[in-house]
Amino acid sequence: MNSGNWKHQGLREIPIPKKDGTTRMLKIPTIADRAWQCLAKYALEPAHEATFHPRSYGFRTGRSAHDAQKYIFLNLSSKANGIDKRVIELDIEKCFDRINHTAIMDELIAPKGLKLGIFRCLKSGVNPEFPEQGTPQGGVVSPLLANIALNGIESIHRYHKRQGNRITDKTQASDIVEPSIRYADDMVIILRPEDNAKEILERISEFLRKRGMNVSQKKTKVTATTDGFDFLGWHFQVQKNGKFRSTPSADNFKAFRKKVKHIVNNSNYGATTKAEKLAPVVRGWRNYHKFCKMDGSKFSLWFINHRAYKVFNKETKQNHYSSKKLLDKAFPAVSYSENKHAIVKGTKSPYDGDTAYWSERNSKLYDGETSKALKKQNHRCASCGLKFIDEERVHLHHIDGNHANWKKNNLEAIHESCHDYKHMSKAQS
Questions:
Q1: At 372, phi and psi to the nearest 5?
Q2: Which residues neighbour 45 within 8 Å (Cβ) at sequence distance 6 or greater?
Q3: Which pLDDT band, with edges at 50, 70 and 90, does 427 fall under?
Q4: Which of 53, 109, 386, 421 would suit a FRET pair with 188, their CA atoms being 20 to 30 Å apart?
Q5: What are the tens digits of pLDDT across the range 89-113?
Q6: For the chain, first and last CA: distance in Å?
Q7: Measuring CA to CA, which residue among 108, 102, 143 is closest to residue 123?
């Protein structure tokens, strides 16, 4: 991929408010520049995925925040003596604004032409005060560049699986434990009682200093697992009885409640419109937290549900029955299974050629009739016969064309593009 005469244009700056009252500048490239960055990302990603640490979960194909949640559970459950452990909540000060360009360029696996394009991309969003630092937030390729620069920080805290043994050059990878979880620039390091938090933080500071970044002294803290900590919108805590609990964090629930309140109390919408607008918000929030402990009136949304019912029922067109139907539509149910997420295996990547593993894993994202059809078809498309390995959505196709016929032998799982082709063919004939 040759950059040729491509020149990166100026960036649009949009101030985004932060929790502490300050603002962060989001720098957005033009559509043409974003298209180039997207192509560059597709070219760079497969090579770098092979080098990335298995405990890095942010902005990586085939990995999600739920994998990070599951790994924390495995390290803090009663089996792992989580009650005795501590956690370093690491915060990197202005991570995207302070990444050293040299650190990125030295680690970049790319031909000369592509490297030149990435260099121009980095230089387009620089702060005049720090001309050799920063990657523009809002750029398509920025999260990948941040992952390249921070790769290796997860290996700083490591120890032998068997207590008392030291790690040597001959130690097998399966015997080394690296209990660090990173999601982009957010990181959590799990400590045993005998681990020295100060020494680990010094080593991390040295690692970051070489890359132009610093540990935020205000926000970085060492917390006992029994006191609990927030990470990726969840609150993790080990109870006094040793049981691990994961629930939506207070800030996450507050933001969600604010969104729902804005829709429910909006006088411009009727009850039907409110229900339609609430459904994706509620479904998205419940899906994100489906591996948490969600019982109790707060997280089951009883009070929000009751408030919405009262608002719907006030309308002259609605009665008790129609309001209840709208409520079911506005608050779609999602099945919960606490800590049951299947974590991605080790260093597995969608680019490693293991189509059987990734096809089966991606199929688990679906439930109901789609899930049954996928199992019946051995996770292959009923139309083209290929495995479901990419990010293309799986569609449920009605063979006889009757969408009211939901019998098992009338349903088949196919690629979205295959589904479009089938219906296009019917329209032409």
A1: -65, -40
A2: 61, 144, 351
A3: low
A4: 109
A5: 998 887 777 788 888 888 899 888 8
A6: 41
A7: 102
Query: In this structure, what token pair is assigned to residue 144?
Result: 């990948």
Closest CA to 119 of 97, 130, 135: 135
Phi and psi torsions of 206, nearest 5° = -65, -40
Per residue in 293-329, pLDDT (tens digit) is 988 888 888 999 999 989 888 887 888 888 888 888 9
Q: Find the helix packing angle between 271-288 and 250-264, rounded to 10°.
A: 170
Given a contact cutoff of 8 angstroms between Cβ atoms, the answer to whether 2 and 113 are in contact is yes
